[in-house]
Every structure is written in structure tokens, then in C-alpha cells.
Structure prediction request, 275 residues.
Amino acid sequence: MQRKHPWLCDTFAEHSTKMKYYINLLIFLIFLSCQNSSKTEKETKEKNEVDFSQIMKKSPNLNPKQINPKDIDTIYIDYLANIKKLEILTLLPDSCFDSWKWAKEERKIFEKSIKTTGYYIDSTPFYNTVDKAKNNYFGTHVVDGYWEFAIFNSNESYIVIVNDKVGDGDVIFVYEYKNKELKDITKNFLNILSPENYLKNKTNSLNCLGELEEDFKVLFEYNFENINKVEIDGSWSINEKEHSKCLDGNYIALTFDKNTKTFKEQIKWKKKDIE
Prediction:
């Protein structure tokens, strides 16, 4: 009977142990890779499913079969959660998009895609990038400008305020949305939404602003993101010390009254960080 060499057994045992170690390590690495891949896919989907949170573009009527898959972003939108905003978006006249063009027919196709499929295929990057959409507000970057609208709910209808900042300054439109129809009521709200309306004496107050006179209107920023309030906030260059003879304040808050479908105004001086 042939005798086994002890050193040969020891060597084989060590080799077997190492092989088991490497196999287990390989299995662990594969498992870890799968977990990371699954997590990444989940995070990507969750990111795309945020309400109106990704990219909308000008031409949603493209045939998906003609699009390179590498160029596709699938944008998931909860139709029922955004139904009022989508309805109003399709009804807004083309004049609200004069500075950048988003035709009514294109908006209808976009809305229909969301309604029937729950998503929209985006294949034209860097044109119209949704920035915010929450509650009553929708805002989007358009090339190097901005376009936004807000809806204010009254007892029987909605007041819709559109602000086109894609071109030169703020261009305001106001509508009443009732029974799936829009009525232009811009002229009823232009005064209360215009900073010039808050000058103490409209005939000569601009003169006391000095160098700010020419750029007075663009020195104010609109904020439509609050559910029942519009804020008109003046630049740091408008302050109480220098301009109290011209204005009663550099900050205007307009609180919406759903019973009267009007805004109650409040103006005050607001200290800026730079002062």
C-alpha cells in the first residue's frame, strides 16, 4: 500500500481553502454589483416620476420608432394629480408663448400622451426644461429665459396668472378658468400686479428715483409659488432711506380672496441682506 505524503495533503488543503475564499469573494462581488444596479435603476425611476419635475419639450408628437433610444428621456407624470394644470396648459392661447412658441396643438398632443400612457418621451434636450411644479404653480426654463403660470382656486372658478419672462422682462396675462373655458381678464389685474401702481404720486414719483427710473419695472421679481399669495419683491437698490418719498415699500404681498376672486394688497419696506 502506497503511503501518502503529509506535505502533499497540506498543500492540497491550503489550495482548496484559497479556492473557496476566492469563489465566495466572487459571489459577494456579483451580489453587491446587482444590488447597486437595482438601486440605481430605482433611483432613476423615482427621479423621473416626480410631478412635472423633468424636461418638457416643444415637439411631443414624435414617433418613438424613429428616435434613437440613446436620445430618449421617459418622463412619468401623474395625470390625475396634475389634471387642472394640464387642462389649462392646453387652453392657453398661443399669445402667451409669443417669445418662444409652444403651439396649442403641440400642448394638446403632450396632454393626451400623459393622459393615455402616464408618460412622455422627450427627445429634444435643452429647449424647455421644467424647473418647478407644485400645488398651484408651474415654471419652466426656456433656453435662457423663464416661463411660468399659477392657478388660484375660488369657490366657482380658477384665476390663472401667466408670466412670460423668456423675452424682455415680465409679460403678464390673467384669465378666469371656468367650465373648461378661459376668459381673458388681464385688464382687471394689470394695475395691482404692476409695481408702478404703488408709487405715491404716479405723475412725478418716478423722477425721485433718479437713476432707477428707466429700469424701475425690472427691479421687481414676482413669486407665484404660494397657494394663495403673489409676492412682488424689489431689488436691494430700492431702499427706504433713499426712496421713501417715492414708494411706501419695496415688498408687495397680494393675498387671494377666493370669495371675491380678487387680491388684497399689503406693501411694506423689507430689509435686504446687502443693506
Remarks:
- The chain is about 25% helix and 30% strand.
- The radius of gyration is 30 Å.
- The longest helix spans residues 6-48.
